[in-house]
Amino acid sequence: MLRAIRPLADGLDRRFRAALRRGFDDTACRAILASAPTAAARLRSLPQFLEQVEYNGRRLAKLNVSPAGVSEALDGFDSLLAPSIVGRFEPAREQLRLATLFALNQAFYGVREAETQAFFGLYRAETEAKDLEDLLRRFVRILTNAFRARAGRLILQDGARDRRLSRALYIERGEPNERLIADPAMRGRHASYWSYPLRKTGLIQFGFAAPYPWLPRELTLLDAAAGRCVEAIERSRLRREVRRLETESRHAEREERRRIGRELHDEAGQSLLLLRLKLEMMERGAPPGVRSGLAEARGIAERTVVELRRIIAALSPAVLERLGLKPALQQLVARFRKMSPAQVELRIAADSDGIPRQIQEVIYRVAQECLQNVAKHSQATHVNLFVQSADKRVRLNVRDNGVGFPGKLGAGQLPTFGLAGMRERATLLGGTLAVRSEPGKGVAVTLDLPRNPAAVGQNGVAGNGEDSRAFD
């Protein structure tokens, strides 16, 4: 049959092309012509033709031409072919038609499935990425694979940029616009490029091994993916701003605690000590009938001084500022032993001198919160408090053998507002706080912090200049 069609191929193609132009653009016409029997007649084998049909089927799918539309067009070709072969080769014509339609349908739904997988990959990347850097790398990798590009770049730009980059660009090697490819390592290495703006945030660029103008469906996918990228970047920047404000709020809170502590110590504390001294002097010279009342008042003043010192220490641990983490924890444990019958084992296997003050304070506060919870709720008889440093991180473990918290804790759930506040502090410094508990089996609290919080990534984008995420 194909040998019989070969001499007629040029004439049939001219007539078929003229009919196709009434309903399809030039790109779709070429793809449909490459799937007609005349294309099979020009090739050496049927597998080679079906491979060509599958390739052009993908192009037709990206042109938003449905399999039904292609099938109707090929029916028109059959009506042109029938008079030329006078009803011959009916079984062969039907088999070729079925094989062609099967390949076209397979290609069409393969493209749709690949688009779905790309979108699913983008959504999954948002849930699995550790930070913005990781998220953008995942986005570029997914899109580079989805478009079958050789390389991809995502460039974040907050400053001014060439006005031409504010719209979608198709660029071929050697064109003047090739200098708009942002990465010099990518420029000049590929036969063609796509450049797509991410609003005012930046742009995404791809390099291809051959000249490859995008098709409508690819441009739609690119537009949707760019929207996801922009939203993810903006959310990350908002989270970074929230973290900055939280950090400033915590700093202001610490400074206010210190100020209140100083004023309580310098004003109320000194006044109470003077009151106690006056009461003691009055007690010594007072008649026996009044002396007992003065002694009682003096005792109240002494207890108030002790309670005031406890409040001042809770507001701002002066011993931590003066002597460091180890003496502060030792003093904390000593005060706990006066409040609770539980035995406490304190081990510090870390060089606290090299730990920044903000890290020391979070460790101290978490230990303080844990010991308060033990004293109030746990009914524990033994508490382990262990501080260690390894791999540029500092870890605090507090474990007791008390009654534990009622019911199991859900993922990310914390049993007290105090520990929830401690987790927020840990997160701001790039750390984590985890609590494990079962009824009757005690509580284990683990605080893990970077030894140097300045080294913690911001999970955001620099405020000025450029930042490039790349995938090859």
Q: In sequence order, what are the helices and strands, one letter per element?
A: HHHHHHHHEEEEHHHHEHEEHEEE
| Cα Rg | 38 Å
Question: Which consecutive residue ranges, at least 5 long each, have pLDDT under 50?
Answer: 455-472
Per CATH, the superfamily of the largest domain is Histidine kinase-like ATPase, C-terminal domain
How many beta strands in the DSSP annotation?
10
Structural summary, described in words:
- The protein has 472 residues and is of the alpha+beta class.
- The protein has three domains: 2-116, no CATH class; 131-241, Beta-Lactamase (2-Layer Sandwich); 323-455, Heat Shock Protein 90.
- It has 14 helices and ten strands.
- It has a five-stranded antiparallel beta sheet with strand order 2-3-4-1-10, covered by helices on one side. Strands 5-6-7-9-8 form a five-stranded mixed beta sheet, with helices on one face.
- A hairpin with a 2-residue loop joins strand 6 (382-390) and strand 7.
- It is elongated, with a radius of gyration of 38 Å.
- The two termini are 47 Å apart.
